[in-house]
Amino acid sequence: MGGHILEQNLTREASDAALLSARGLNKYYGGLRALRDVDLDIVRGEIIALVGDNGAGKSTLIKTLSGAIVPDGGDIVFDGSSVSFHKPTDAQDVGIETVHQSLGLVDELDVPQNVFLGRELTRKVLGAITVLDKATMRQRTHDLLQNFSIGLPTLNEPVRRLSGGQRQTIAISRLLLAEPQLLIMDEPMAALGVDEGSKVLALVERLREQGITTLIISHNLEHVFSIADRIAVMKNGAMIGVVKTSDVTREDIVSMITIGQA
Amino acid sequence: MISTVKTGAPDKSIGQSDKKFRFDSLGLTLAFLALIVMFSLINPRFASYGNLLNVLTQTSTYVIVAMGMTLVITKGGIDLSVGSLMALVTCVAFGLIESGVHYVPALIIMFLLAMTLGALNGAIITFLAVPALIATLGTMVAFRGVALLHSAGKLYFGLPPEVVWLGQGAILGVPVPIYIAAIFILVTHWLFNLSRFGVHVRAVGGNREAARLAGIPVTRIEVAVYTYMGIAVALGGLIWMARIDGTQATLGTAMEIHIIAATIIGGTSLFGGRGSLYGTLIGALLLTMLNNALVIAGVEFFWQLVVVGVIVIAAVTINNIRENRIDWINQLRGRRAANRSKPG
User: Fold this and answer.
1) Do the chains contact at B196 and A154, CB–CB below 8 Å?
2) CA torsion through residues A261, A245, A151, A93, sign
């Protein structure tokens, strides 16, 4: 593991190249150690997949990176500066947005209302009365969806009438509005059909073309191998290793997940 | 014209409003018009200009309180305490005026008290996590108790003429309560349909956790909605006590069921997230018309309570059927669809 000084040097080097560098993250839930000295570097512009069995610590790790939970130890350097997140908006403020498995959509609201939820645009009428600028929000939603080639039959329906894949793309596009540097996705293809899953995959690839870095949790190794530049494997709360997708086979990853050896 | 989104069907919908909403309110409007025609055919007195103005005036208090209730139910809440709160604040205002306080400060105190007690409802619900049904059931009884204590069974009457004018006066032949209700509807329309606040109310009612994650101040929205409910109750109560130039601690008994009925008939979902002020307006008018027609037909008042109770349950049931919330009907539908798709 090297000495203390060496580790610090490593940290500095890594942060220069990396968009995000996590060092020595720990998290305890009572007696359970959910994260064990986890290190992770995320390179600018890459898609990095996070895999592992249930209970491996994947969700805990992304929750620390997105500010949903506060780690019991460790450091995070983002975009060259040291950060500590106490709530989700802390992470959002520096440019980290997270698509949760629950998606965070309001079923009864339409597409622009969901995309602009919590940051609605307004305008003044008669010089004094503030009203929602529905036309601009609709237009900007339309442009945003078009920019990322997201097809939706309509913007005006409550989102509960849309399919799982369509809801997923809305959940992603509402985060793109904030122009994030790092997008974290928790199982975005889970519970989607094959066709819809591949559409979401294609969207993630287009995001890479536009320079957005993505950390994606997935159980589906086929998906992982088709889009990820690198794969990070966790087991029992520890980071087993991070490998280039082109250097490994699926069998290698499976054995890392199950046996816990690189 | 805006170009279409790349994949999927051409997006013709940009710039259009929600078609489903239009359809819903159209159905309600047609039912409303049909009822007017029916009542007029049965009794020509119903359709007279005088009686219609009378219906509108009678509706004004209900419609104002129901505007507040629409926000509350859309937020995913309910308020059973509106009738008791109205009794309490009108008794307090009357008591102040009777003891020699000028009516302006007395009415200001009435509104502030209603807002405070409304906010109290919201605070109990949001900070103590008491379900809205139980919280407002508790305050319903408590407010009534305070009203009875305060008035000691007294019948208040005799307001200054300026206040009575608010209930009994007219401008250009149209009663003042109708103007007041119209203005309040417009203000609520701005708040609910045109402002950020309205979207946030729907978001909190539709998905509280998503609203929180989106940075919406959920607790503040909840307290604000119930505070607005308090304003609605005070305004509705002001019109009521001015119209009859009196009040008592039993005022507004069973009012909550009428208000909730008007809101639900109008298509506001008890499950939160969806509400329609237009629907509530029509719902309130429908109920008053029904009562009015029953009165003209000489039906006893207590039967009206029976009718309203049945209407509330029927309205929610119809909504449940449309939204596929009833399991055994869903199963029937599924079986029928399966039979249809069977070969031969």
Assistant:
1) no
2) positive
Domain boundary (A178, A199, A230) is at A178
- CA distances in angstroms from B23 to B18, B20, B243, listed in the order given: 9, 5, 36
Q: How near does any CA of chain A get to the CA of B189, in Å? A: 11
Asked whether residue A114 falls in the same domain as residue A171, the answer is yes
Q: Which residues of chain A does B19 touch, with a Cβ-Cβ cutoff of 8 Å? A: 156
What pLDDT is attached to residue B315?
Answer: 83
For residues A80 and A36, membership in a common domain is answered with yes
The chain B residue lying nearest A113, using CA atoms, is B199
Residue B342 — very low, low, confident or very high, per pLDDT cuts 50/70/90?
A: low
Length in residues, chain B: 344
| Optimal mutation site among B11, B16, B19, B21, interface A, most CBs of chain A within 10 A | B11
Q: What global pTM score does this model have?
A: 0.83
How many interchain CB pairs under 8 A, A with B?
Answer: 109
Neighbours of B339 (CB within 10 A): 8
Average pLDDT score over residue span A146-168 = 82
Q: CB–CB of A156 and B9 under 8 A?
A: no
Residue B201 near residue B67, CB atoms below 8 Å:
no
Please provide the DSSP assignment of B255-293 as one string. HHHHHHHHHHHTT--TTSS---HHHHHHHHHHHHHHHHH
Question: A171 is in which domain, residue-wise?
Answer: 103-178
- Our CA-based measurement puts residue A126 at a distance from the nearest CA of chain B, in whole angstroms, of 13
This complex has an ipTM of 0.81
Indicate yes or no: CB of B5 within 8 angstroms of CB of A130. Answer: no
State the smallest CA–CA distance between residue B81 and chain A in angstroms. Answer: 27
> What CATH number is given to the structural domain containing A34?
3.40.50.300
What is the enclosing helix (H) or strand (E) of A48? strand A47-52
Separation between Cα atoms, residue B63 and residue B67, nearest integer Å: 6
Scanning the structure block, which residue is given the tokens 């890479």? A208
- A113–B199 C-beta distance less than 8 A: yes
* Domains annotated on chain B, with CATH: 49-322 (1.10.3470)
Amino acid at B295: V
Residue A40 in contact with residue A22, Cβ under 8 Å? yes
Which residues of B are less than 8 Å from A206 in CB distance? none
The predicted-structure confidence for A10-19, as pLDDT tens digits, reads as follows 444 444 568 9
* Residue B48 phi, psi (nearest 5): -65, 150
Q: What are phi and psi of A40, to 5 degrees?
A: -155, 130
Domain shared by A191 and A260, yes or no: yes
Q: What are the residues of chain B with a beta carbon less than 8 Å away from any beta carbon of chain A?
A: 2-3, 5-9, 11-20, 190, 194-196, 198-200, 202-203, 205-207, 209-211, 213-216, 269, 272-274
How many angstroms separate the CA atoms of B308 and A116, rounded?
40
For residue A245, the distance in angstroms to the closest alpha carbon of chain B comes to 30
Length of chain A in terms of residues written: 262
What percentage of chain B reaches a pLDDT higher than 70? 92
Contact B125, B132 (CB under 8 A): yes
B194: DSSP letter? I
Same structural domain, A126 and A31: no
